[in-house]
């Protein structure tokens, strides 16, 4: 079984503390890949607003957060009343790491399926046959109400 | 107060079943523009799953094989907006999202939430989120930050724990409270350097901060009086100048000098030059100090009460 870990990318929209080449480089690679991900404009802003989305993000199983210093990210979530499970969440630091490093960490753990299984293995919740695949509307509705499963095949890829 | 604003919808770039791939350049452009406008943006592919993020409104963008009306019927959800972006530019797509959000604003908001205004969706309010974040692994609840801050950024919970309660009161780019924290427990994630930016704290940092314990005492008991005095001198020089340009330059020089004298605290010139009057400073400093002392006294009393409750009762004489 592969393990598809949720990815959260922070754009750090309000300050120039992240190197632009790293911030843009990671996003470009995410966009060019076939990895599903969530992205937010600014985790600091969300923390200050106590945005309820943070709680949902904190509860994503084994979430990988591409943002800044782990200590800062951890306490930003905590300040919003959405503490991260630090044993399960991983934080990648765009302030200090290179695009290559971040990308290798993301791709090394985003899909942990062994090569022989990768062609037809899927994550829990994805293992649906074609007739059971979620449509766009089902996907979006489910994303509002409950966990939304994505189709494993049949949909066009990037 | 907290920066409470209505939550913008979540936008999903959908590339799953019944849809075609969004061209990569458009995908990137859309993502960047939507993020810049304050939207949470998710990309859905055939390789994984998206989770509920709790949004009341979701906008789905995709190049669909079915008419969006049919998809909407399948969804049977008024809070879901589906846009087919086939052959559309990023700007056109953003315009259509804004238009549909404005249209939905006409109805009454669900769950008591305020629907975003056109202004908010088109150009979210740009408050730079600059505020302290407390590392509670390091914080000892000494209340020095509460005592130091003149702008009521800090407060105390019912349980007597320090907290950041008025983030928007914080002065942008001013990390001074983190400089007076003896435990290096205050972060400003957007600060330029460690450990204030969240970088790991090393032993040198701790040693350096320990030397600054009770910085107000080190500076003669009233750091704000000192700051104010220096600022007044700078203003006085300014008032004696007749050449406005020269005066402005002089004032800037004085403020820079004043600022350099307090480099340890890194209080921005804007904050120094906007300090309130001496009376106001003294009053606020006194109030902050009283709040801190009260919080510490309450905590001490609670601690004693808990210890008494836990210890065995003394035998009766």
What does this protein structure show overall?
The complex is a heterodimer of chains A (158) and B (317). Chain A is α/β, with parallel strands linked by helices and 158 residues long. Chain A has a domain at 7-114. Helices cover 39% and strands 10% of the residues of chain A. Chain A has helices spanning 20-32, 43-48, 53-58, 70-79, 99-110, 115-118, 136-145, and strands spanning 7-10, 37-40, 64-67, 90-93. Chain A starts with 6 loop residues before the first strand and ends in a 13-residue tail after the last helix. Chain B is α/β, with parallel strands linked by helices. Chain B contains twelve helices and nine strands. Chain B has helices spanning 24-36, 68-75, 90-105, 118-122, 144-148, 176-180, 203-210, 215-218, 223-240, 244-261, 269-273, 278-310; strands spanning 10-14, 19-20, 40-44, 58-64, 80-84, 133-134, 154-156, 162-164, 186-187. In chain B, helix 2 links the parallel strand 4 (58-64) and strand 5. The relative contact order of chain B is 0.09. Chains A and B meet through helix 1, strand 2, helix 2, helix 3 and helix 4 of A and strand 1, strand 2, helix 1, strand 3 and strand 4 of B. Strand 2 (37-40) of chain A pairs antiparallel with strand 3 of chain B, so a sheet runs across the interface.
Low-pLDDT windows of residues of chain B: 108-120, 237-244
Oligomeric description of these chains: heterodimer
Distance between the termini of chain B: 55 Å
Structural classification of chain B = alpha/beta
Q: What characteristics describe this protein?
A:
heterodimer; A: 158 residues; alpha/beta; 4-stranded parallel sheet; 39% helix; 10% strand; globular; disordered C terminus; B: 317 residues; 2 domains; two-stranded antiparallel sheet
Question: What layout of secondary structure does this protein have?
Answer:
The complex is a heterodimer of chains A (158) and B (317).
Chain A: E1 7-10, H1 20-32, E2 37-40, H2 43-48, H3 53-58, E3 64-67, H4 70-79, E4 90-93, H5 99-110, H6 115-118, H7 136-145
Parallel strand pairs in A: 1-2, 1-3, 3-4
Helix pairs in contact in A: 1-5
Chain B: E1 10-14, E2 19-20, H1 24-36, E3 40-44, E4 58-64, H2 68-75, E5 80-84, H3 90-105, H4 118-122, E6 133-134, H5 144-148, E7 154-156, E8 162-164, H6 176-180, E9 186-187, H7 203-210, H8 215-218, H9 223-240, H10 244-261, H11 269-273, H12 278-310
Parallel strand pairs in B: 1-3, 1-4, 4-5
Antiparallel strand pairs in B: 2-4, 6-9, 7-8
Helix pairs in contact in B: 1-3, 9-10, 9-12
């Amino acid at each position: 079984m592969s393990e598809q870990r949720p990815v959260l990318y922070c754009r750090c929209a309000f300050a120039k503390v992240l190197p632009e080449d790293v911030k843009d480089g990671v996003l470009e690679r995410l966009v060019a890949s076939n990895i599903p991900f969530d992205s937010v404009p600014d985790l600091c802003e969300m923390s200050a607003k106590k945005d309820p989305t943070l709680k949902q993000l904190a509860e994503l199983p084994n979430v990988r957060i591409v943002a800044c210093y782990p200590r800062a990210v951890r306490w930003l979530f905590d300040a919003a009343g959405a503490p991260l499970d630090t044993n399960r969440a991983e934080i990648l630091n765009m302030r200090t790491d290179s695009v290559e490093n971040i990308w290798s960490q993301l791709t090394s753990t985003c899909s942990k399926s062994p090569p022989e299984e990768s062609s037809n293995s899927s994550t829990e919740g994805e293992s649906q046959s074609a007739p059971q695949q979620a449509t766009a509307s089902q996907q979006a509705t489910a994303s509002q109400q409950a966990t939304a499963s994505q189709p494993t095949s049949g949909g066009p890829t990037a | 107060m907290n920066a409470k604003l209505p939550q913008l919808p979540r936008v999903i770039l959908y590339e799953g079943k019944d849809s075609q791939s969004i061209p990569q350049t458009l995908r990137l452009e859309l993502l960047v523009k939507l993020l810049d406008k304050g939207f949470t943006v998710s990309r859905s592919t055939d390789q994984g799953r998206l989770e509920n993020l709790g949004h009341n409104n979701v906008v789905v963008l995709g190049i669909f094989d079915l008419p969006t009306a049919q998809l909407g019927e399948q969804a049977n959800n008024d809070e879901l907006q589906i846009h087919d972006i086939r052959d559309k530019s990023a700007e056109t797509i953003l315009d259509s999202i804004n238009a549909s959000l404005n249209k939905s604003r006409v109805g009454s908001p669900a769950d008591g939430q305020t629907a975003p205004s056109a202004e908010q969706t088109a150009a979210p309010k740009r408050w730079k989120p600059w505020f302290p974040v407390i590392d509670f692994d390091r914080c000892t609840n000494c209340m020095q930050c509460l005592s130091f801050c003149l702008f009521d950024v800090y407060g105390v919970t019912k349980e007597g724990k320090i907290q950041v309660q008025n983030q928007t009161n914080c002065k942008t780019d001013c990390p001074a409270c983190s400089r007076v924290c003896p435990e290096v427990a205050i972060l400003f994630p957007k600060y330029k350097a460690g450990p204030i930016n969240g970088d790991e704290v090393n032993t040198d940092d701790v040693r350096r901060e320990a030397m600054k314990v009770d910085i107000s005492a080190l500076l003669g008991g009233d750091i704000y009086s000192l700051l104010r005095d220096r600022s007044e001198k700078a203003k006085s020089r300014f008032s004696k100048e007749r050449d406005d340009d020269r005066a402005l330059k002089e004032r800037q020089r004085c403020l820079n000098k004043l600022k350099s004298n307090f480099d340890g605290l890194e209080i921005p010139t804007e904050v120094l030059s906007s300090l309130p009057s001496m009376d106001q400073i003294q009053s606020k400093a006194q109030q902050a100090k009283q709040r801190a002392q009260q919080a510490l006294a309450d905590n001490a009393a609670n601690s004693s009460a808990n210890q008494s409750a836990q210890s065995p009762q003394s035998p009766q004489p």
